[in-house]
Amino acid sequence: MKKKLNIGLVGYGFMGRTHSNAFVQAPRFFDVPYEPILKAVCARNADRVKAFASNWGYESIETDWRALVDRKDIDLVDIASPNDTHAEIAIAAASAGKMVTCEKPLARNAAESEKMVTAAESARVPNAVWYNYRRVPAVTLLKQLIDEGKLGRIFHYRAQFLQDWTISSDLPQGGEGLWRLDVAVAGSGVTGDLLAHCIDTAMWLNGTIDKVTAMTETFVKERKHQLTGKMEKVGIDDACAFLARFSNGSLATFESTRYARGHKALYTFEINGEHASIFWDLHDLHRLQYFDHRDEGRVRGWRNIHVSDGDQPYMKNWWVPGLQIGYEHSFVHQVADFLQGLADGKPAKPDFKDGLATDYVTDAVLKSAKSQKWENVKKA
Amino acid sequence: MKKKLNIGLVGYGFMGRTHSNAFVQAPRFFDVPYEPILKAVCARNADRVKAFASNWGYESIETDWRALVDRKDIDLVDIASPNDTHAEIAIAAASAGKMVTCEKPLARNAAESEKMVTAAESARVPNAVWYNYRRVPAVTLLKQLIDEGKLGRIFHYRAQFLQDWTISSDLPQGGEGLWRLDVAVAGSGVTGDLLAHCIDTAMWLNGTIDKVTAMTETFVKERKHQLTGKMEKVGIDDACAFLARFSNGSLATFESTRYARGHKALYTFEINGEHASIFWDLHDLHRLQYFDHRDEGRVRGWRNIHVSDGDQPYMKNWWVPGLQIGYEHSFVHQVADFLQGLADGKPAKPDFKDGLATDYVTDAVLKSAKSQKWENVKKA
Amino acid sequence: MKKKLNIGLVGYGFMGRTHSNAFVQAPRFFDVPYEPILKAVCARNADRVKAFASNWGYESIETDWRALVDRKDIDLVDIASPNDTHAEIAIAAASAGKMVTCEKPLARNAAESEKMVTAAESARVPNAVWYNYRRVPAVTLLKQLIDEGKLGRIFHYRAQFLQDWTISSDLPQGGEGLWRLDVAVAGSGVTGDLLAHCIDTAMWLNGTIDKVTAMTETFVKERKHQLTGKMEKVGIDDACAFLARFSNGSLATFESTRYARGHKALYTFEINGEHASIFWDLHDLHRLQYFDHRDEGRVRGWRNIHVSDGDQPYMKNWWVPGLQIGYEHSFVHQVADFLQGLADGKPAKPDFKDGLATDYVTDAVLKSAKSQKWENVKKA
Amino acid sequence: MKKKLNIGLVGYGFMGRTHSNAFVQAPRFFDVPYEPILKAVCARNADRVKAFASNWGYESIETDWRALVDRKDIDLVDIASPNDTHAEIAIAAASAGKMVTCEKPLARNAAESEKMVTAAESARVPNAVWYNYRRVPAVTLLKQLIDEGKLGRIFHYRAQFLQDWTISSDLPQGGEGLWRLDVAVAGSGVTGDLLAHCIDTAMWLNGTIDKVTAMTETFVKERKHQLTGKMEKVGIDDACAFLARFSNGSLATFESTRYARGHKALYTFEINGEHASIFWDLHDLHRLQYFDHRDEGRVRGWRNIHVSDGDQPYMKNWWVPGLQIGYEHSFVHQVADFLQGLADGKPAKPDFKDGLATDYVTDAVLKSAKSQKWENVKKA
Description:
By secondary structure, chain A is an alpha/beta fold. In chain A, 34% of the residues lie in helices and 26% in strands.
């Protein structure tokens, strides 16, 4: 009989849905030692949170996250609300002895994140941040390849995360579905929202970053705020690019924007090593491109690997070779690994400290964009 | 309050899993008028069916499908067991007044399928066959494009379904996980298993097929049978290719094999019309290739469409633009449409009669492979 | 000092240009033992043939091919005129003791081709047919791979040649630039023009074809004839598809059409062997797709090989790795190999006899399309 | 009767071959007003220059470029020798009243290039620099699209030029075929050799660059020098990446390396505009990727354009739709345009001044890599 793990979710937006689905699906497809129970979901709008609870099978609702955190029957508080709420909720939850899982970025800036790490470590509660892309099977596979030394010395890392959904100047900022454009809520624009993903993956795969030089731009300077109804200055970065040097001596370029026509969520990265190179692309997330220089010269080429076989990470738990999985499965894998980690006493990564490490990079990036200088990155 | 629909599933293999997942996920992501209740699952091995029931949340088990069919608390019998069981179960279920949904192909041959159609139509029970690929969003989208006349007169249709999993002559035939290689159970090899998919899609998109000329081959002539332990003659077709003429005057080529190295489940098809052409590929099922000759000449090219936007079929119910879904979602969509069809009194397609139409084609194909002549296709 | 080889070209159309370019470029890029001298070009229109000669540096012109054949200073007669002229010119040239190179298809049908073979073999003159695609480096490379046994036993061959330039019914037939639509001149439609290419490559790579079953279609039944100005029945096949069995036991599908929107000259073929598969595409002719099942499972994938390295066929004579060559280079390679073959006493293939072998297949295909039966293929 | 233009070529390496081929092929495929005559080729090694002259049909040779420059029968001096010779030869040739065409980069640095511009402008001689990629048909086409306003306001430009040929530390530097690794001869590493191409295209398409911040790296610190036989410090940059701001407000990233496994000459660039985006890739140079947001939403996607039609730049002069051209054709186009420009009195771009503008950028890039600061770019 599996142990039950009572979940209390905060937030019912896009991320509330992906997390809920992950909690439900994980035990169906993975032989996990805990069964997540959807105990409660919390959000301010009672009608909408009721509808959400009904749809997903949450047993109860709350409209104040403090009430949720206080509940005895909640084992784990999962934070899927906007960035400006992360720190306060996470700290309270940890202090109340709850496990805490938090949507990325960990917080609006490293100062907030540091407090979250302190709270979680003081309380010694299991904690995690949802950098889900680590657990796309193709990405997990390439992590294995790197760890096995198949790439050899790494020379280059390049990543980008390109979108095109904010080009229209008619798009308002702030409020329902648009808080990512409101700097007070989000903390930053593409840097915290998109580059944070790129940085988390990069440091997981290639180690720490020493220093960066960056530029940012806000193409649309003013937008109507959805809540105030007024034209207000836009405070977020619409685009950000930076150069970086990793501690292992490799060079990197990172870029993100919401002004790249034709790209909806084009997160790609490539790593060039002495012996082999790899490339991955979120728009075809079930594929891995791999070039191995040790192949015979005449027939050397980039291998287009359809990551759907049983000997590839996570895939024996899904369908049969050739049948692809999608975006939400990366969250399911994160839940499966988290639950297994609980049982093993080996907490699944990334945890709050990893989230903080990423925030140190994004802070340095934003600082460099202002100072117009290379900035060193603080290590977590 | 949604009405409940009590499901009784027969079979717990690969298809038992996809169907169960679809019943569970459909009401989470689609606003359907019925809520499927996993009432019972049936298979001969009691231990394994218990484990399956526990994993998926089925309320009860049966080890004899006749008992399942007799149960008053079952509204719908879903058949996910091997092909040789389809007809008997479906006919009994329909006769018992149950709705019936049956995995494809409808049966081992058209003679069996005809009886199933008769039974379902006599009993006037809602019925469906799981040709799931119609509901991959990219495929549904191209159906819309065809229906809107965007392609104009159709000249060519070509489809293939290529796999490579039976090349080794050491692979046994028959029994657990391998009944698809046993002609007595499966009815045929790639023709019923894979080409049936191609034919269902083709007739849905391009109308009926008038005649065919075919060739089949069995590359490995003898295999050890898993159940008897003896080397036995292989009765299935390992590969099959045929030429066809559609009633609308277009020409077609179809091919399937399990001996195409490098292809796991490469179902592709292309349609060439007077004004536009389209191409789809199961290995990247979230993409549609579309060429429109009416685009300006200098910048005319195949459009690689990432089918993940809210204005594309089914996609507003999933994530956000750029984030892909996978294989199992096509089954979820089928359940959603089936439930909606129940409420609307407009049964969702494909139904048993459509399944029979496909079986008439596969029968003609297998007949032609023997007769070495063009054979006419019976119309359903 | 290189020996000179005096060329007499017949025809100044598309193929007259590719051949002329090949004669000129071959000695620049390949260390060939003969230097082709552009001695004379022949065509009926004196003004146009003069302009052509001036452009390409031909020393003289003729307006009657018989005069060209009679000239003492011509060593090799190269035939680039329409199909209906091939046999007569080639036979006369061979009888006059000239080497003969002839554009494909060798003739309008095998009966004509047989006479050409007889003439060339009786006269013991070097002869060749311009099936240029054998000498695209990617294609030559895959021939090497097959000959080395890298694919193992071959199960499947599939080829297609798709175009879209005759869809408009306003396009006239016959005459300048359009003789390929005039059955009296061309002999057949896509079968002789396009499938002949597919068949030549296929038999070179995979051996002889035993039997075929085919269908053809003429979508536009009448077109205005450019020379007569009248609407006339269209005699060519607009589209043709056939199934085939090779002598080595492999199965094949072939298809060609000029009614496939979006494809200009999409000649593709794929071969599936026991150990490996290969795919090639004329639209990206500098690339070879290669899948090797012996690669480690986790990182197995189709290799996209950019055929531009010095260890790949012909490429050390061109630029540097990464820089692609184009269509016309295949003709240059054919000239280089032909000239080397002359010096070595090992005539370069394909020769007239190979051309005849292909015509036997196209004849059987056209016969099957009429008889609606499988037809055996005569062997050359 | 065409006027003759007497060419005197300096250098017989890789670029000597591409230029010679271009001079020969241009009048065969384009109706140009001048016929280039291969009058003389010059290099220090008499035997090798003789062999080169014989192969390409140069009428005479020189072993001292000063003698070539002094010859009365030379109209145009074409410089295809290493970078350290460009300035001296070009200045002398211009001063002698010759037209001058010079391989890129114009010189080792802007200081040298400024003198070349001054010399050419003082002498009022036609001059050009061989940034050949402007005349790849796909690139020329996208220039047209930009000029027509199809992209609208430009937000982003990103370019990379990735190679992998110097990863081995056993590769010597300097001397025959390897002067690009010798900083004294080349001036810089990938910055002048590869990024210069990227920058020339970028400024042609997107206007001037205002400022840059860069990083460079030399991965292999010492290599044996081919001429001295000794291990010597490597002075070139093996890799370089920079961020840039264009005068039109768009942001850019540029990267080049010779340490990117799997890439031979992967020059790619992408431009994101308000309405449309474009992408091009040297490894498939005959293709253009184009995304137009104004296409209907459901069927919006990146168009993969096979640039081989008669209505696309330069292509009506080559073969037929679907048949691709290669690398060397870009040089042929440059000669054709240069000759036409001579007749029209509208000199073809890029000229020396354009070459200098690029050198101002590469100088600023290298300066920034040292200063670790943003550097302003001088305007030509």
